[in-house]
Design the sequence.
């Protein structure tokens, strides 16, 4: 599972004047509930959402996602 790097996203969103999850969700074209699940780490971001966030907030795709350590270890085994 790939997760959203909310720390990096929030830094860039705040620089753009978007301090609320609802503002980020609206900008990305996703529901607020989906964005909240992304922030909790209970769902993976879609490719389309990542592309929009990258374009709007100027964050690289590498900076927007990460793979949990447990899954990295399983993949290496």
Sequence:
């Amino acid at each position: 599972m790939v997760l959203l790097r909310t720390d990096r996203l929030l830094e860039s969103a705040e620089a753009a004047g978007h301090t609320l999850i609802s503002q980020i969700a609206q900008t990305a074209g996703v529901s607020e509930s989906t964005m909240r699940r992304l922030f909790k780490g209970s769902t993976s971001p879609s490719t389309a959402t990542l592309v929009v966030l990258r374009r709007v907030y100027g964050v690289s795709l590498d900076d927007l996602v990460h793979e949990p350590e447990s899954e990295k270890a399983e993949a290496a085994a």
Remarks:
- The mean pLDDT is 91.
